[in-house]
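Fold this sequence, please.
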Amino acid sequence: MLKEEDFLLLIRLFDIYESGNFEGGMNILRERSSLKYAASVLRISEEELRSRWDCIRVRLLSERDKRERPQKDDKILVDWNGLMIAALAKASQALGEPKYAERAGKAADFILKEMRAADGRLLHRYRGGADIPAYLDDYAFLVWGLLDLYETLFDAKYLLAADQLNRTMMQHFWDGEHGGLFFTADDSLELPLRDKSFYDGAIPSGNSVAMHNLLRLNHLTGETRWEERAEKLAMASGASDAGQPLGFTMLLSSLDYALGPSSQIAIVGSPEDESTIDLLRALMSRFLPCKSVLLAWGEEINGIAPFTRNLNRIDGKSAAYVCTGQSCHPPATSPLEMMRLLER
């Protein structure tokens, strides 16, 4: 138990009342002020206050450990992890923090290794093993994360995995009659109805994310049919008749990408070359949401994006090939020149 003086300090630090601050007269510890401010009010040093609080916290934890712990939800879901991978990759680009991309890469590697069936298809959940056939959101969100991760690390395996999973998704979820993607696969257990949703809820719509992925993969791989599928998906959404634009924000973002102007940048050069690094750093220093970036280096990328076979370095320097819409500019070899082309 706490001494009286420690309990009085606890009341001062947290929002505690005799009548309680929660249902049933219970109290939940809620910090009411910073330690620095509390120390000034109590007229003691912040170091002394912090030391006393650390002792109190140890005793409180000891008491709490006597209680039965609540059950812990420790399952791993592909769709939520896909969103997390995308967020970490973007954060790494924007903040220049390699540790975020490293963690995103570990998550992606785990899913690609442990949460796929023998035929390469995704499994939705992992807890001591993977099970449950994946849904549309699993494919769409993971492909999203893998594309952002590729454009952060430029490891071709992530672009290849995104391309393969996208093909699997289109094979098993695409509605060939009306367009759009069903939430469940074509070989799922017999269902009275296969749902197809375009409306964003707490998380984006799988269809809207898939549309964005299709457009990006079209630019990154040169596969023109993905752009055609994206157009059919948009037409199938019926969003123009819904009258609720706030419910279709991800779809609107995808439409914005489709309508342009969007930019496709292919950088030819070794990832270790300083001139390549300078070009990539310049791209990541600016907020350019409607762009795709490909590092055209190595046979693996040539296999995924055959158009890169015709791209070369210029006078021994890494070169950036910038295209906007249907127009492509002469290659740029300096970050300044490349950014001027993008600003046009």
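The two ends are 69 Å apart (CA to CA). The chain has a mean pLDDT of 91.
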